[in-house]
Specification:
mainly beta, Immunoglobulin-like, 14-stranded mixed β-sheet, twelve-stranded mixed β-sheet
């Protein structure tokens, strides 16, 4: 095995760290130039624990620790009295200067170790042992070992065999503080694969806080010409704290996605990335191309292959970042990966993508896959039998969906018999911002969503778009415009007070800016096939124009009385309404109360389909005439500027919260300019005829009236016989007039002409079962004076 001894001057292999070397480094005063490299002192477990605060950080991985332990064991494995043996255990120091992997072999690794070996008597605590040891080693001078086998076990892992090292012969000077330069190649073979896998898993999980290694070396030893036979030496080393390497955090950069396969007929998706890992160790070696399988847990916590991945050849340099190019291929997704799990509403793929889109760290599992012919089989075996978790850093996709909006919206208020929630039909438009590094064709055929609607930060309600809706997608630059026509999506009002604020701002304010926060499911068609991406966060704003923006007072036409009772009238009219918004609404039933000052005088109700622009609606009202109602009606007929207050109430819209609308509107003129349009007075017959204007048919049951000219009474009418009034203008029968004698001169002077009169009358009216006495006042009436 002498061929394995390598001089630092003659070897063509590049050591891990270049440094000046002196082949004659044997004097006591020789000092190491590598002050930043650690030294390893081999002793009993107790001595190591007492001296661990003085040790530097152990700079290598466990595999190379096997080699270091073996070198140390071989160096002091000679037969000496127990005192000399104890001296050797406590005084040995080995300072590794260069550690590198020379090559990968079919059975393991060929590693190169360079360092300095010496005995330091000052480490020996007992003075007699220290003195006898220095004397004995001064006499022996040199010790030479033959080829040695070192086995390293891990007591904390059921004494599993970690690996075996085969060391070449070593010849060292064992006098105190005599530095020996060691430069050798050793073959390392992995031990129990299950044990290595357990250690690797604890290392990846960050649970490897301390490691205890027990090295057992079988070494043939000689001193000078004396052969001392084959010796078996066992030593224990313990590494903890900073001496135990930590799992480095990978830095994943330049992630790119693209389709692969024949253009137009892709076979799958290709993902490319650069992965960088910090290297704190003075190691130098090359790792060949490696193949892996990327796994995801299925519904039963088993693993499903999601993708295959391959790394480029990796060149590891001492204490420099390790960078590798990784390419992953995702082919047709297995059904079990996209199938909904039992007692759940998500699939394994949904869980993975959902966490990733939310910016949370996601975990995939890595297992060795198919390797190329240049990779040793033992590496492939270890990788195949080892499955480790790999955390992908979360990437928040807050801006994945740029906009979520509704257009051509149609609101349907709930049917009082069939439904409890209003519904919305609209064109849902979603603008998806595709990452610039995602060079793939993406189509969307269906969408659905669960959307919360907010107003000024407060939750208004929930828009249920859970039913799948047909969609189409259009590529616009790097964005994807997805449109879907939604029909009759239920809107559940969550806060009545917020809803009332929205209605108030629509009716009396400047409109309502609603904010929509949605979780969107998208059925996609990609090179991987068809699958659903669930719970994509989306947000958008919808501005609803105010009703009063271009509001015009509704016009009432065709008023008629359709029913009566002793105390009320049921009126019906056609309402010409202009909807100034771009939204339409279906109103199966709506009821509001009518108020005069603080007194309710009736109700009005309607059913309608309101579209943007002009609308013609049929409305009905129940007028409950009492003292307040009669007074208001008298003022209205007399042409006063009257108003009505319209108020919503509980169940104004059945199964719908009270919108708390209250608005006072001027009463439209239904009786023309004047109820009493004109009068003709006949002097000889002492009668008068009146022209009355009415929007509906009724009976006048009595008239008790007086006419005035410039404040002086002209005459009075007392009539107690009913006559009919039809819609429009009506000429009454000749009504007897009782002239005021003081007014004859005024009347005579106006003969053949007219007078401007004021009138005050109490009029009895009857419509169906309802009848009432009202008063009327008219000013500036035209009265014709005839014979």
């Amino acid at each position: 095995m002498s061929s394995r001894q390598t001089s630092p001057h003659s070897s063509e292999r590049t050591p891990l760290l270049s440094r000046p070397e002196d082949g004659s480094r044997t004097s006591y005063n020789d000092q190491s130039d590598d002050d930043d490299l650690p030294s390893v002192s081999v002793s009993s477990v107790e001595s190591i624990e007492n001296g661990k605060k003085k040790q530097s950080r152990w700079p290598t991985i466990l595999a190379l620790s096997i080699l270091c332990v073996g070198v140390i064991a071989a160096c002091f494995a000679f037969t000496l009295p127990s005192v000399i043996e104890e001296y050797a255990k406590q005084s040995i120091v080995f300072e590794p200067t260069n550690l590198s992997i020379d090559s990968f072999t079919s059975l393991g690794i060929r590693a190169r170790v360079q360092g300095t070996f010496y005995l330091d008597a000052s480490r020996v605590r007992n003075k007699p042992t220290r003195d006898l040891g220095r004397f004995g080693t001064w006499i022996a001078r040199e010790v030479e070992s033959g080829e040695a086998n070192v086995k390293v076990y891990l007591p904390e892992y059921d004494n599993v065999l970690l690996g075996t090292a085969t060391l070449p012969p070593v010849k060292v000077n064992i006098r105190n503080h005599h530095h020996n330069h060691v430069d050798l190649l050793a073959d390392l073979e992995p031990g129990d694969i299950d044990g290595i896998r357990r250690v690797a898993k604890d290392f990846m999980d960050g649970k490897l806080k301390a490691v205890t290694a027990r090295a057992v070396a079988t070494v043939p030893v000689r001193s000078g010409l004396v052969r001392l036979g084959e010796q078996t030496v066992a030593q224990v080393l313990k590494f903890e704290g900073h001496d135990v390497p930590r799992m480095p955090e990978p830095d994943i950069r330049q992630v790119r996605f693209a389709e692969y396969g024949v253009p137009g007929h892709p076979e799958g998706l290709k993902a490319m990335a650069n992965v960088s890992v910090k290297n704190d160790f003075p190691l130098k070696f090359d790792i060949p191309t490696l193949g892996f399988e990327v796994l995801l847990p299925d519904c039963e916590d088993d693993y499903l292959r999601f993708a295959t991945a391959r790394t480029s050849a990796i060149h590891i340099l001492p204490k420099q970042n390790i960078t590798a190019s990784v390419t992953a291929l995702v082919r047709q997704l297995p059904t079990s990966l996209t199938k909904i799990c039992p007692n759940s509403n998500t699939s394994p793929l949904d869980t993975f993508i959902g966490k990733y889109l939310e910016g949370r760290d996601t975990t995939v599992y890595i297992r060795g896959g198919e390797q190329d012919e240049n990779t040793p089989q033992w590496i492939g075996k270890i990788l195949r039998e080892t499955t480790i978790p790999f955390s992908l850093p979360g990437h928040p996709f807050d801006n994945l969906i740029k906009n979520f909006s509704l257009a051509d919206a149609h609101f349907s208020l709930p049917d009082p018999i069939k439904e409890t929630r209003p519904k919305i039909s609209a064109v849902v438009t979603v603008l998806v911002a595709l990452p610039p590094d995602m060079n793939i064709n993406l189509d969307v055929d269906r969408v659905r969503a669960d959307a919360d609607v907010f107003y000024k930060g407060d939750l208004l309600g929930n828009l249920d778009l859970s039913e799948w809706q047909t969609a189409n997608a259009t590529k616009i630059g790097h964005d994807l415009l997805v449109q879907s026509i939604v029909k009759d999506a239920p809107l559940e009002i969550k806060d009545d007070a917020v809803f009332a604020k929205v209605v108030k701002d629509l009716v009396f304010g400047h409109g309502a800016a609603l904010s929509v926060h949605a979780s969107v499911d998208v059925s996609t068609l990609t090179a991987l096939g068809q699958f659903v991406v669930r719970q994509i966060p989306a947000q958008g704003d919808i501005f609803v124009n105010p009703v009063t923006g271009n509001f015009q007072m509704p016009e009432l036409k065709g008023m008629e009385v359709v029913d009566t009772s002793d105390t009320s009238l049921i009126l019906q009219a056609t309402v010409n309404l202009i909807n100034p918004t771009e939204y339409s609404v279906s109103i199966p039933y709506c009821n509001v109360s009518l108020w005069v000052n603080d007194t309710r005088v009736g109700y009005a109700w309607l059913s309608a389909d309101v579209i943007p622009g002009p609308n013609q609606i049929t409305a009905r009202a129940a007028w409950e005439v009492g003292a307040v109602g009669g007074e208001w009606l008298s003022q209205y007929i007399s042409g006063y500027n009257t108003t009505l207050t319209i108020k919503s109430h509980a169940d104004s819209i059945p199964n719908f919260p009270d919108p708390k609308v209250e608005m006072t509107v001027p009463t439209p003129k239904m009786f023309g300019p004047k109820f009493l349009k004109e009068t003709t007075m006949h002097i000889l017959s002492s009668t008068a005829t009146l022209v009355l204007v009415s929007p509906f048919a009724m009976y006048v049951t009595s008239i008790d009236a007086a006419a005035y000219h410039n404040g002086s009474e002209i005459g009075t009418i007392a009539w107690e016989y009913p006559f009919a009034i039809v819609p429009g203008e009506n000429l009454t029968p000749r009504l007897p007039v009782d002239w005021n004698s003081n007014a004859f001169g005024t009347i005579r002077d106006a003969l053949g002409g007219s007078l401007k009169l004021d009138a005050r009358a109490d009029v009895g009216v009857k419509i169906g079962q309802w009848q009432e006495s009202i008063w009327y006042e008219g000013r500036g009436l035209g009265a014709k004076i005839r014979l």
